[in-house]
């Protein structure tokens, strides 16, 4: 699942859309993948359900795209070191 690794590091959190079946109250909840789904309406304590939109899970925060671009750019990898260090010029 895309973004799972990033969510673990705390860079980005998925946002879920919920709707109450009792009072029709709708709200978003930011949860990590390891969190349990919400079941109680904060307004009336009624039963709520997850709302699956076209996008499903919305990732908020610029860190998601920034990290992704770094991942796919070899030049930005800090572990890339020259195979041989340039020899110092002897005078
Ligand atoms: Zn409710």
Shape: rod-shaped
Bound molecules: zinc ion
What's the CATH class of the domain at 4-61, please? Answer: Mainly Beta
Measured by DSSP, the beta-strand proportion falls in 15-25%
The CATH level-2 architecture of the domain at 4-61 is identified as Single Sheet
User: Largest sheet at a glance?
Assistant: 4 strands, antiparallel
Please work out how many helical segments DSSP would assign. 2
Helix/strand-derived category reads alpha+beta
Order of helices and strands: HEEEEH
Mean pLDDT: 73
Total number of strands: 4
**Helix percent band:** 10-25%
CATH fold topology of the domain at 4-61:
Rubrerythrin, domain 2
Radius of gyration: 22 Å
What is the rounded distance between the termini?
Answer: 57 Å
Word description of this protein:
It is a single chain. The protein starts with a helix and ends in a 20-residue tail after the last helix. Strands 1, 2, 3 and 4 form a four-stranded antiparallel beta sheet that branches. It has a domain at 4-61: Rubrerythrin, domain 2 (Single Sheet), CATH 2.20.28. The chain has 91 residues and is α+β, with helices and mostly antiparallel strands. A hairpin with a 5-residue loop joins strand 1 and strand 2. The protein has two helices and four strands, in the order H-E-E-E-E-H. The mean pLDDT is 73.
